[in-house]
């Protein structure tokens, strides 16, 4: 890969957590208070290219962030996930996982969660 990922430009002083394989930062364009990104330190484009160590690190990081976000923001739920490939909405081609705190009433009808991002899918 010849270009630098936007995540590689984030100074370590802005990292909110890290381990051997992973670091976390607050999303620059949060959809809710506390929206955080979990990012492999190794530059990979796809979640599916992650090693077992990176996958385990991301899982541990989500648990750590959930505990912190529960304490700081007291959310009522979470959306956790990733976009893989341009057809799925990926815009930064350095794999990353979104941890999005959700709050009762933040949208009128949250049933179906991320399904509303796919045309033709709605409440059922």
Key features?
124 residues, 1 helix, five-stranded antiparallel sheet
What is the topological layout?
Layout: E1 17-18, E2 22-26, E3 36-40, H1 52-73, E4 77-81, E5 97-102
Antiparallel strand pairs: 1-2, 2-3, 3-5, 4-5
Task: Give a quick rundown of the structure.
The chain has 124 residues and is of the alpha+beta class. It is 18% helix and 19% strand.
Strand order of the largest sheet: 1-2-3-5-4
Global shape: globular
Unreliable segments (pLDDT under 50, ≥5 consecutive)? none
SSE-based structural type? alpha+beta
What would CATH call the architecture? 2-Layer Sandwich
In the CATH hierarchy, what is the class?
Alpha Beta
Biggest sheet, open or closed, and with what strands and sense? Answer: 5 strands, antiparallel
Give the number of helices.
1
The CATH topology label is: HIT family, subunit A
Residue-averaged pLDDT, rounded? Answer: 89
Element-by-element helix/strand order: EEEHEE
Let me know the CATH homologous superfamily. Answer: HIT-like
Q: N-to-C terminal Cα separation, in Å?
A: 43 Å
- How many domain units? 1
Give helix % range.
Answer: 10-25%
